[in-house]
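User: I'm writing a tutorial on reading structure tokens. Could you give me a worked example: one chain, its sequence, then its tokens, then a sentence or two explaining what the tokens reveal?
Assistant: Sure. Here is the example chain.
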Amino acid sequence: MPTPAAHRRSALPRLGRFAWLMGLYGENFQRLTRMFQPQALSEGRYVSRGTDGLDLVVDVLALHPYTVELRLSYRMRDAATGQPDPSAYVRLYRDARQSEVTHCYVGRHWQDVLGLRPSVQAVVSHRLRMNSFLNKWLEYLEGQGHGPHSLAPADDPAPADEKNVACA
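And here are its predicted structure tokens:
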């Protein structure tokens, strides 16, 4: 029968996965700041036109002293909800130089995906998947020519039902 101390050790995430997640946060921060310089943007909607023919929408949802909240999406809509899809909600921590995906779909907070009492391993795995997705997407976008030179204020501001979607 396992001892309580052995059980606690097995309930903690492996340092390697946590370190990998923190590395992704740092790399995502570097990619985002290099590509779009979100710290210098005002709240509002911006569009980046790359060579892939898909306009990337960058919504600066909120600016705080130490954080910037963003949504990255294409101008495509989910048939069921009418919301942008795919999309990633990102919180950029200026002071820590980290960026994390908070969720990737409207209304899909971690509780919706993982339940009310997920294990630590489940939370870390979920965050790894979301932030790996962002990292690969940013790499793709950069390869398609998206960057500060292709970013301009949007002609069509975000509809009211999109502006007020809370970040988890």
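What the tokens reveal: The beta strands are 44-49, 55-63, 67-74, 87-93, 98-103, 151-153. Confidence is low (pLDDT under 50) at residues 159-168.
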